[in-house]
Amino acid sequence: MSELPGDLRYTDEHEWLRQEEDGSVTIGITDHAQMALGDLVYVELPEVGQEMEPGGEMAVVESVKAASDVYAPIGGEVTAINEELSDDPEKINADPYGDGWIVRMQPSGDSETMSPGEYQTFLDGLED
Amino acid sequence: MGLQTPLYEQHEKAGAKIVDFGGWDMPLHYGSQLEEHLVVRQEAGAFDVSHMTVVDVAGQQARVFLQRLLANDVARLKDEGKALYSAMLNHDGGVVDDLITYYLGPDRYRVVVNASTREKDLAWIGEQSAGFDVAIAERSELAMIAVQGPKARERAATVIDEAWRKKALALKSFHGLEADELFIARTGYTGEDGWEVVMPADQAACYWDAFVDAGIRPCGLGARDTLRLEAGMNLYGNDMSETVSPLEAGLGWTIAWEPSDRDFVGRDPLEAMRANKERQRFAGLLLEGKGILRDHMRVVVDGVGIGEITSGGFSPTLRRSIAMARIPAGDYDRAQVEVRNKLLDVRVVKMPFVRNGQAQIDL
């Protein structure tokens, strides 16, 4: 399994968050998540401007196997969505921490996240 | 840990993601299901189908027994090696399993049934054979590899003993050939040309490696499922079951009604269902927009009634979602499917969706 990028925060729902300089937060799913899902074939995205409750349904990622909800790890307003995913959902498989980003939000509160080390420990625990 | 085929080590070495399938540890994919799917449509892929159950039926009454056991008529098998697809019905006209029967030679047939239904099939076949002069032998010492795709036969042929190569390549569609320790048949479950090769289990790894070296790429059950869905081929347990008649599973074409005095198991209830014009249809669905149709989703036909998707998913060839569904009787070509609390428009289409690499429906 690949290294976890050190500049990201992680959740126990296998999402990652990147703090951007303008105060917004970019969100995607982790390499572990995309591997477990298998090839992605469809992504349903929220609307720009939509207000998200923490834990609310933010996106749906569908793989060859099944559909999975992606929950908002923080509350806030959606400021951007990765529209390229609607034609090319496989970007999430190919580059989960880069081109496969899903949503950018202006957060309205804090979130409970893990450091890369904590998330790795969490992953190791799942594999036992 | 589940049952393992003789190719389990090959799968592990190739980095397969292993999943349980009917009690067997089988490869789901070797990295990317989508890539494996497209390789079969465009070139050649190899599938381990050794979990399937091979049963040989031999004896003076082998033919009359199979004519009683199966809804299709093995009397149609005139040439040696010819194959026949059939449903095996219960006394209510429901489907115990679907299978392929090969006519190996006078008084000798080979039947290949599903892995997940092995025990009940063997019990049912045994029970039905009472009073017939036949010997029924499960051939669990055999393995099976399917090589599928437009380049599959030509590449696999390089692995076959030279003495048999020409004959193997000359096989017509739905015909098989006993070639020393091998049985080679031009059949499959993908909608592409190719062979299914039955071999002694202890030689399976050797043949698998040779097929791979010849340019045939390992493909898992994931791609096998999307390929067969595009090809409009039923999956037992999804598209048919013991409580569904072949008439409601798109298998009417496999029922040999003539001769009318052939008394196959399930015939009487099936005749009654045949007369019922209100029985459900089995059809393909094509999602008009974005989204994915999944097994068991509700199909809504405005003003007509409700149906259900039996197999649904993403078609890598069409880049759209497709499904097989049991839907109400009637003449219509539009419907809707309830996808995650939304009604999405679908077109009702005739299957297959894809055959020999080509889309068979207009998008």
Describe the structure.
The complex is a heterodimer of chains A (128) and B (363). Chain A is an alpha+beta fold and 128 residues long. Chain A has one domain (9-122): RNA polymerase II/Efflux pump adaptor protein, barrel-sandwich hybrid domain (OB fold (Dihydrolipoamide Acetyltransferase, E2P)), CATH 2.40.50. Helices cover 21% and strands 33% of the residues of chain A. Chain A has four helices and nine strands; from the N terminus they run βββαβββββααβα. In chain A, the strands form two sheets. Chain A has a six-stranded antiparallel sheet with strand order 1-2-3-9-8-5. The mean pLDDT of chain A is 94. Chain B is an alpha+beta fold. Chain B has helices at 8-13, 33-42, 62-69, 118-128, 152-157, 162-169, 201-213, 221-230, 267-275; strands at 17-21, 24-29, 45-48, 53-58, 83-89, 95-105, 108-113, 135-138, 142-148, 176-179, 182-185, 194-200, 217-218, 281-287, 298-301, 305-315, 320-327, 334-339, 342-349, 354-355, 358-359. Helices cover 22% and strands 33% of the residues of chain B. In chain B, the strands form five sheets. Chain B has a six-stranded mixed sheet with strand order 10-11-12-9-3-13, sandwiched between helices. Chain B has a six-stranded antiparallel β-barrel with strand order 14-17-16-15-18-19. Chains A and B meet through β4 of A and loops of B.
